[in-house]
Design a protein that fits this description.
With about 250 residues, the chain is an alpha/beta fold. The protein is built from nine helices and six strands; from the N terminus they run E-H-H-H-H-H-E-H-E-H-E-H-E-E-H. The termini are close together. The structure holds xylulose-1,5-bisphosphate and magnesium ion. Magnesium ion binds next to loops.
Length: about 250
């Protein structure tokens, strides 16, 4: 007998919102501001997204392209801090809306008494800026948040999910994660949490073996998603419960 769904865990980048191009632009602006003639185009960034976390991504790229570089850590820290400021400024303009269906499912889950949490490799300030702009300044209070700063290892390690399970005192079998990437799916599955994947242009076509369902987005009545077996065009809490009920603990 499977556990009923008690907690919905949201990934942030690529799942709540299509933030990655804003991250990429902010990185490129921070490179220019630091006087570096580096530029991450879309095709390179797609490859780099396999490394979770902005600092880790930059450190990985520098180690590959500038192996002789000294004192990388200090440079990475400074550039990443500037990139974070630029990214949040971009979010505050409202340039990055929530993905289809996200605001509706958050509201439905809240009304249904389902606990909601966030598991992300990005920084807490980015989560506050995104949700604050999209849903209002108090919106973050509706979530238990596990962000980059709270754990030692980023996705695909399960640390953010394990941190949440410990904090929530809810068994993994009573949770459902929504992720957009292979590393996100691996992280949730390593914590034994059933996972639905909504892809985006950065992750479409990747191998999501192990996901309960793979969709282009959660859909809304006026913006239906593809690939729902029942043809309804959008995901609601009833469907999330049905998928979760089919998951093998
Ligand atoms: C995806 C990421 C993030 C962002 C960059 O996060 O890998 O690292 O690309 O964020 P999510 P920072 O787990 O939400 O999908 O630069 O703040 O690290
Ligand atoms: Mg993601």
């Amino acid at each position: 007998m499977s556990e009923p769904l008690r907690c919905l865990i949201w990934d942030v980048d690529g799942t709540l919102a299509d933030t990655e191009d804003a991250h990429r632009h902010a990185f490129n602006e921070a490179f220019a501001a630091a006087g570096a003639d580096w530029h991450w185009d879309r095709s390179l960034y797609r490859q780099l997204l396999k490394i979770g976390g902005g600092k880790e991504r930059l450190r990985h790229w520098l180690a590959e392209t500038h192996p002789q570089g000294a004192n990388l850590d200090d440079m990475v820290r400074r550039i990443h801090a500037d990139k974070t400021t630029r990214f949040q400024t971009r979010l505050e303009t409202g340039a990055v809306p929530l993905r289809p269906g996200v605001a509706r499912v958050i509201a439905e889950a809240r009304a249904a008494g389902i606990v909601q949490a966030i598991a992300t490799t990005t920084h807490r300030g980015n989560v506050d800026a995104l949700l604050g702009r999209a849903l209002g300044p108090d919106a973050v209070n509706g979530f238990i948040i596990a962000a980059a700063d709270q754990v030692a290892r980023k996705k695909p390690a399960p640390d953010v999910y394990l941190w949440l399970l410990e904090r929530l005192k809810i068994p993994a079998a009573a949770c459902l994660a929504i992720e957009d990437s292979v590393i996100g799916l691996a992280s949730a599955r390593a914590a034994e949490i059933a996972t639905v994947v909504t892809v985006n242009p950065w992750t479409e076509g990747d191998d999501f073996t192990g996901a309960l369902a793979v969709l282009d987005h959660l859909g809304d009545p006026d913006h239906p998603c593809r690939a729902l077996a029942d043809g309804s065009g959008w995901v609601d809490v009833g469907l999330l419960r049905a998928w979760h009920g089919r998951s093998v603990p």
